[in-house]
Specification:
The complex is a heterodimer of chains A (300) and B (263). Chain A is 34% helix and 29% strand. The model of chain A has no long low-confidence stretch (mean pLDDT 92). Chain A has eleven helices and 14 strands. Chain B has one domain. Helix content of chain B is 76%, strand content 2%. The chains are: A alpha/beta (300), B mainly alpha (263). Chains A and B meet through helix 2 and helix 3 of A and helix 1 and helix 4 of B. The complex binds adenosine-5'-diphosphate and magnesium ion. Magnesium ion binds next to helix 1 of chain A.
């Protein structure tokens, strides 16, 4: 399968801050690829450099066969972008936002295409509504539709569902699946595990400007972490666990909550049940991998 | 050469942005033009009739007609400046419209040049609207001079559009622009010969005046409106000064905007 985007040894520094430190990855045509990382990991910076919104200090980028940033105009003709912050044009209504945006590509939208995009964004009945009267979810969907005016081969989505309520989020997910069905290549950044697990064929986990793991959500879970997790709650949990080290492979403590990781937790579960302790037993998931690799420290 | 300092690359793509601004403006054409003409009109009648009644003629011209020449250039300057400052800043910084456009096959140069053309057009429309008022009031001597006055209006508007965009690139909030108006635009109005002859100014201020773009705009418009004389060399000088302001402003705004937005 041909590569739609190849990023090789990307570096970018803003003054003292090293935003991206040697990121490399390849996205295949038709794939939905996720970059998963905490705030400040360097996700948006990576996307911006891929789009030549920002210039790398070193490293190469090949987007749809174009070298970035040198061949940016040719590449952008085939690319759609949903930015992290909505920047719909508040001086225009929904339809005008689509037609005016198409004009920046030198394109004129047919009435059929406009209707198709409005339907896609679920805004057919709000075609002439001002942007400021739309809800956050509607604006996000319109931004997504706007990214499709040029019928792009490749779509960049920077945290497409951050700040949306669950209903709005599920609607966006459904639309993104429709796009996958039409064989578009998607690169999305997110810090929602569920989003990455549901949508992405492969994910890269990014932290501190580096990509620390790449794979399908399932392989990351099998390769990067034990099979099972037992979450135990209690004030004396540290002592309790210290005297029972044979029952688990390792644990992480977070206040009065302990996460025990094990490939076979049955003995631990039995011991907990025998004492009537408060616990949850579940298979490990992508979030566990994420927290294992990026740590539990708060990022602000 | 550092790409930051390259002169802007001119492409027809810039007109896509000009057209976007035009589409927004079209929704509010009449109120917009009326507002742009109102301010110079207030000056025209306030000073023209008030002060005019006291002093009668100035340099052999009726005072109302004397300042009418200045108000045409003033209208163009004011409207182009407002568009290049407040409106462009809104699109660049507040609404993030430029950022959206920069995800399409448009360069920052395209965006900036598109804004320049647009603010120039708005300034020119205000100047021409003002000129129409002047003509209707019978203050223009000859119809034949009107096309030439229009060219000066366009040049004036493009110069202030370019200067305004350079200032815009440095602004961090709307407040910044009040400095520009208070420290540059308003004193320039007084020193440009729009309201009274430059000759009455103290010598040092006369020198300052000679370097101000509005001075040269007024210098060019007045003889064509009142039927006075202007030496060809003076005409050439004034056109060149306005062209220098346009070119330098445009180059400066390109560099400053690149430095601000391309990281
Ligand atoms: N324009 C900028 N100027 C200075 N620092 C920046 C800029 N953009 C991003 N950064 C810094 O680079 C790091 C990575 O940011 P970003 O790529 O936005 O992360 P993410 O999208 O993963 O949250 C952060 O520390 C951020 O503060
Ligand atoms: Mg981000």
């Amino acid at each position: 399968m041909a590569a739609a985007l190849t990023v090789d040894k990307l570096y970018k520094r803003y003054g003292e801050i090293e935003a991206v430190r040697g990121a490399s990855f390849t996205i295949n045509t038709g794939e939905c690829f996720g970059i998963l990382g905490p705030n400040g990991a360097g996700k948006s910076t990576t996307l911006q450099i891929c789009l030549a919104q920002s210039k790398q200090d070193s490293g190469t980028i090949d987007l749809l066969g174009y070298t970035m940033p040198e061949q940016v105009l040719a590449a952008r003709q085939k690319v759609g972008v949903v930015p992290q912050q909505d920047n719909l044009d508040p001086d225009f209504n929904c339809i005008e936002n689509l037609t005016v945006y198409a004009h920046y590509f030198g394109l004129q939208l047919s009435a059929a295409k406009i209707n198709e995009l409005l339907e896609f964004s679920g805004l057919s009945t709000r075609a002439h509504a001002r942007i400021t009267t739309l809800s956050g979810g509607m604006q996000r969907r319109l931004t997504l539709a706007r990214a499709l005016v040029n019928d792009p081969e490749f779509i960049f989505l920077d945290e497409p569902t951050t700040g949306l309520d669950p209903q709005a989020r599920h609607l966006i997910w459904e639309r993104l699946r429709r796009l996958q069905d039409t064989n578009k290549t998607l690169l999305l950044t997110t810090h929602f595990m569920e989003e990455a697990e549901r949508l992405c064929n492969r994910v890269a986990i990014m932290d501190n400007g580096q990509i620390i793991a790449i794979g399908t959500p399932a392989t990351l879970v099998t390769e990067c972490i034990e099979k099972e997790v037992v979450e135990i709650y209690g004030a004396d949990i540290e002592n309790w666990l210290a005297s029972r080290q044979s029952l688990y492979d390792r644990y992480e403590q977070f206040g009065q909550l302990a996460y025990c990781y094990s490939n076979d937790a049955i003995a631990l579960v039995q011991a907990l049940q025998a004492e009537g302790r408060n616990f949850t037993h579940r298979p490990a998931n992508l979030e566990d991998v994420f927290l294992r690799l990026t740590g539990r420290d708060l990022r602000e | 050469m550092n790409p930051l300092y390259k002169p802007p690359l001119i492409s027809r793509r810039m007109l896509r942005l000009t057209f976007r601004n035009y589409k927004v403006w079209r929704k509010l054409t009449l109120p917009s033009i009326s507002m742009n003409v109102l301010e110079p009109l207030v000056f025209l009648f306030g000073f023209g009739l008030g002060v005019g009644a006291l002093i009668g003629d100035i340099e052999g011209t009726d005072y109302l007609q004397y300042i009418a020449a200045g108000m045409v250039g003033y209208g163009a300057m004011q409207s182009a400046s407002f568009e290049a400052l407040y409106s462009a800043f809104t699109r660049m910084h507040v609404q993030r419209t430029w950022q959206g456009i920069l995800n399409t096959p448009m360069t920052l140069d395209d965006v900036l040049l598109g804004e320049w053309v647009w603010a120039g057009m708005k300034g020119a429309m205000a100047g021409v609207a003002m000129l129409l008022v002047v003509v209707v009031l019978g203050l223009a001597e000859s119809w034949l001079a009107l096309p030439f006055i229009m060219l000066v209006i366009i040049l004036t508007a493009l110069a202030f559009s370019a200067i305004g965009l350079a200032v815009n690139a440095l602004a961090n909030s709307y407040d910044f622009f009040s400095y520009y108006f208070t420290l540059f635009i308003t004193p320039m109005m007084m020193l440009s010969g729009a309201f009274f002859p430059i000759a009455v100014l103290p010598a040092p201020l006369q020198i300052v005046s000679a370097f101000l773009p509005l001075t040269h705009s007024v210098e060019l418009v007045r003889p064509f409106m009142t039927g006075g004389d202007i030496a060809l060399s003076q005409m050439a000088l004034s056109v060149v000064v306005l062209l220098i302001y346009t070119t330098a402003g445009l180059y400066l705004s390109t560099i400053l905007t690149r430095r601000r937005l391309l990281k």
